[in-house]
Amino acid sequence: MTMQKLEERIAHGERMLEVLNEVVVEQEKRLQKLEIQNLQIIEEIRRLRNIFREPFLPENEKPPHY
């Protein structure tokens, strides 16, 4: 294999590494956003569970026009 071919392969490998690194960085950003959304959804589910666990008392309900 010639020196030029080796240099081309190295250059190609370096470019591929850069592209893969960019992909990993973007995936990490997306993962962080999804983790935040997941935590928000979990909190909303907990809130709703608490609402539905409370006994229904008509006297505590607001009339529809409020």
Can you describe this structure?
- The model has no long low-confidence stretch (mean pLDDT 90).
- The relative contact order is 0.05.
- The termini are far apart.
- The longest helix has 51 residues, at 3-53.
- This protein has one helix at 3-53.
- It is mainly α.
- Helix content is 77%, strand content 0%.
Record the SSE blueprint:
Layout (H helix, E strand, L loop, with lengths): L2 H51 L13
Helix-strand category? mainly alpha
Biggest sheet overview: none
Number of helical regions: 1
Indicate the proportion of strand residues: under 5%
Distance linking N and C termini: 82 Å
Low-confidence stretches: none
Please compute the radius of gyration using only Cα atoms: 28 Å
Tell me the helix content.
Answer: over 70%
Would you list the SSEs in sequence order as H and E? H
Q: What oligomeric state is this?
A: single chain
Shape: rod-shaped
Q: What is the count of β-strands? A: 0
Average pLDDT, to the nearest integer? 90
List keywords for this structure.
single chain, 66 residues, mainly alpha, 1 helix, rod-shaped
Concise synopsis of the structure shown:
With 66 residues, the chain is mainly alpha-helical. It is built from one helix and no strands.
